[in-house]
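Q: I have 234 residues here and want to know how they pack in 3D. Can you give me a structure?
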Amino acid sequence: MYMKITYNTVRLFVLLGLGLWIGIIMIDTINGIIEWEHTSSTRTAIIQTIPVEYSHLFNLQSREKIRNSFTDLSSVRFPISHFDYDDNKYCIIETKIKLDSDISLSKIINEIHTKTSISKGNTYWGITESNFNFYYLAKPIHTSNVLLALDGDSIRTLSKNDSTISYYFKMRSFSMQYDQNYLKDLVANAKGDKIPVCLSFIKRNRLLYIILMSINYDNKLQPDLLSNAITPSY
């Protein structure tokens, strides 16, 4: 059967396609507004200090080097703190997540080396440092399994036991995602070239503390600087 294609037929199909495209954009926009309003309500305050339990992960000598402290408070997850260290040579971001079970840290963290980024279609809060951006989901977090993606060069495991794991590497990016979903939660991306970072995990009972250290400006970073600043686990 032959159907004659006329100007009006083409015009109808174009209008239908345009209407469908506009409808999809409107639905995405509405969903984005709803998600933005939801996540906006979860960020309750930014204060110029850090929780005492966060600072007490550092030894006494190291605590005296902490400056310019800020903490993002949320109604759905534990605080995210960021501050400068040792005359502003270094920046540190610190937070914690709840663990579902009290097992060895080496059984909780599973490490892979691959490029990583935020999960598209989700709203993240962020922290901007001199050399990298840090993102986190505004969602409740608890887990018994962490998939840690490290992307960079010279990746070294400095220590690994039941309660502490420390890394040093030249970072392009890193992320953490958990067993209850496939969304990336904590994500960091270097702004330009690879940057040196220290990354430590400290398990205290059923809490997992995450500490990320990097450089401000062009300072050098000793691989064991962060691990030496942290109070030994007990």
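Q: Anything worth noting?
A: Residues 177 and 184 are 5 Å apart (CA to CA). The mean pLDDT is 85.
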